[in-house]
Amino acid sequence: MLAYYLQLGLRSLRRNPALTTLMVMAIGFGVAASMITWSVFRAVSGNPIPGKSAQLFTPQVDGWGPQQNREGEPAEALGYVDAMALLRAHQAKRQTLLYPVQLSVMPGGNRELPLNANGYAVTADFFGMFEVPFRYGRGWGAQDDEARASDVVISSELNQKLFGGADSTGRTLGLGGHDFRIVGVASHWNPRPRFYDLFSTSGFADEPDIYMVFNRALDLQMRTGGRNSCRGSISYTSWQGYLQSNCVWLTPWVELDSPAEVARYRVFLENYAADQQHAGRFAWAANVRLRDVIQWLDYEHVVPPESRIALVVALGFFLICLVNTIGLLLAKFMRRAGEIGVRRALGATRGEIYTQYLVEAGTVGLAGGVLGLLFTAVGVSGVGILFQPEIARLARLDLSLVGLTFVVAILATVLAAFYPAWRAAHVQPAWQLKSS
Q1: What are the backbone dihedrals phi and psi of residue 214, each rounded to the nearest 5 degrees, phi first?
Q2: Which DSSP helix (H) or strand (E) runs through 248?
Q3: Where is the ABC3 transporter permease C-terminal domain (predicted)?
Q4: Looking at 269-352, which runs of residues are DSSP E strands?
Q5: Can you tell me whether residue 183 is helix, strand or coil?
Q6: Which of 307, 308, 375, 376 lies closest to 36 in space, CA to CA?
Q7: Residue 181 three-state SS
Q8: Which residues contact residue 215 at a Cβ distance below 8 angstroms, ignoring those fewer than 6 apart?
């Protein structure tokens, strides 16, 4: 019977092409608007590291005091003194410090001009904590951190530019006038949002080119290529003075596998801040935070407000389209009241009437889904009109979005058809036969 009802539905679509076109266009436009905005919202609000987001935490320690903070919250990063104190305490299974660096790749081979390379100075645990995949080689070890080795991991894209994609581990790379040894080539890895560096980026920057040893970057006195936030009078004139200042520029991350470990580390942070107060370095009570990845993304308001607004507006527009579709379906179904009366008089049940007209509505939804998919494909390519380029690039038409488009179009149309189908199923056969 379903195949028969589907055949009736297709015939009905051809019976009144003008009314059918209006319904299909209403569904198509509504679905397309929703799917375009959803593709952006999905990209910017997803979990960037779903397997470990509940085990990765970023600690914050108030090094400025209540007069300099924003609404009582500690700074989003740490200064050198506090960051190194946490690192040396080794209170977590894994821990890393990082900050952005910008260097020039010196000419070599067939290249006559240097290249710009953006990346991070990190400690050895960075690669294991964040599950960085490797195409060639690996990251360095803790002993290389201690030895302040001139090791570097480069991206696959940079490896392609410099070495044609070949295995470059063991080769020498000139960065900023210094030689570094390539120990690994990372596969494509650029979690969106870039949760581990929301202090210096919006979370949607291009993939980093290099990762270098944190201590080596300090030895070379490499200033941060990202944000550097200071409070009070700035009096330092040397690198050591900068390190001892209250300027924050280092992002810490720790890996904690259980609630007990999280509780212990939070106590450690509170004790550390209390010790700094007793030592006279802090003139305020301990003020610390320990947030996991999802909490950190929420705190940093990573999801652009315009994406939320656009999604709400699009859903409202889709709702209006569905209301119009309800009216059009009601008009379409009730014009066939005589036909319904005859079917009911011949023994058709109300359930059969429901099924027939809901299947017919499903065919309208399917046609609307096809049209909506075409509009979505066009709209996804033009989201840069409303959003920043780095966010617009994230919107893409993949198989999941194609499937969701059809599911939403068909399901929404069927739901919209319930009231018109109910009216059709409750047509009184006697009245229709008498009037006929």
Answers
A1: -55, -50
A2: none
A3: 312-429
A4: 288-292
A5: strand
A6: 376
A7: strand
A8: 123, 145, 146, 148
